[in-house]
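Inputs:
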Amino acid sequence: MAEPVLLLDRLGKRFGGLTVTDDVSLAIRPGEIHAVIGPNGAGKTTLINLVSGTLRPDAGRVLLSGRDVTGLPLARRARLGLARSFQVSSLLPGFSALENAALAVQARSGSSFRFLRPAASERALNDQAMAALDQAGLGARADVPAAALSHGERRQLELAVALAMNPRLLLLDEPLAGAGPEETERLVTLLRGLKGRYAILLVEHDMQAVFALADRISVLLYGRIIASDLPDAIRADPAVRAAYLGEDA
Amino acid sequence: MRSWLGPLLLLALLAAAPFIGFGQGWAMTLLARAMILAMAAVSLWLLVGGAGMVSLGHAAMLGIGAYAVVILDDARVTEGLVVAAVAIGAAARFALLTGAVAVRTSGVHFIMITLAFGQMAFFTASSLAAYGGDDGYTLYARNTFAGTGWMEDRVAFHFLCLGLLAAVYIKCRVLMASRFGRVLRAARENPLRAQALGFAPYRYQLTAYAIAGGIGGLAGMLLANATEFVAPSFLAWQRSGDLLFMVILGGVASPLGAVIGALSIVLVEEWLAELTTHWRMIFGPLLILAVLFLRGGLAGIPAMFRRG
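Outputs:
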């Protein structure tokens, strides 16, 4: 069996007396979409932050393609191939869509301590950035500043930027958050297009989307994983239904 | 290309100034001072407008450049090219050392730390008894230039300052358009995003801080030569405040704003001071009005008219 792209090994995190991540272990294999679901307050965002490096765990390890990255900050993990999208779009508002993506390409191609040549004229950066925008269906809006994009387009740009990083692991924090029905449909189609090509950790509220996309689903409750299985098994799991699906679906 | 129109116009105007009625000694002195401070303001712009780091200690960079002239003058080293290299190197090194601490902070903390380092430099200069302490140090003469007394000629000095101002301006624009500048802008707009892409902003911001320091040192070296006198007041925090004001009044959107801000403050100050001894009573409210009503600063005025 191929080595997991992401391995969480008995991860734990406490805030004061509150345990928000409790003995969480999971593995994501190449090309697999692994969804994490759970009610509000289950600790999904904390888990994302522990994986991306904005938080340090109190216990356990995070391994990226077998390499222990537990002590590394966000920027180092990004350079090792971890791309995250944010729940609330976190783009560079003054940069055009193309520039947002081009900076992601720049991050992984050569030194950025270059002081003379205008970055905007680097063909190699722009071409790859454009390819990422096209992949996210945003090619026609390349020259529009991120601040002027619609909400749905910003979600697409979040995705394009993550793709432009050419990552080993995509960490998608509620990529559908706040999107309307049409936008959701477009984004789900887009995500389905990535299936099999990237290892993806998907945190999402939209159950329909999760069951349509995920290869495996883990259910988080009070910081613990109470079930981790194939979508059909999760759908049938009585504990999951009681804890979560019953209220929502 | 249109973004070069304004700067070129200003360059032509400054180049023509000595021949269109500003050729007298006092006017040339004033213009040289304005251009040198403009250079310092552009370097501060690199931090404020470029990297989003509001420094209140930039006068220290000028002061270090100026005291490099003094210390070398005292040691009988008066070759301008050597002095300039030392001034730039010393100021950049000071920026690198103090920046290593300051750049770890941001916002108000960054303002306070740069202010504190600036005050440290100020009191150090005041205590340099060998170089006049509080009273300052009068230079025997301006630095030589490649062995000639060329800098003593006021037209030549005018064009030296203008040429260096243009060079510094171009350097800043090129820098901001480069890969490095792009990372700086990203870290200013959204540090979390910059990190998520794999950039640790600290290294880039510290480098920018050192570059701005070096340019500040060059401006200080020229200022010492322009006035042929150096005092600790060069490093006073009020001067840092003045520089910051020049950048903000001119408009933080572009380095041209810093140039325009510096030139207008120096010239309007002089003009008002001629009208009345109570010129600060007029100058203060003028500045307040400008900040209130000119969103993009002085450099943003043409755009305001275009929009109507």
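Remarks. Residues 32-234 of chain B form one domain. The mean pLDDT of chain B is 94.
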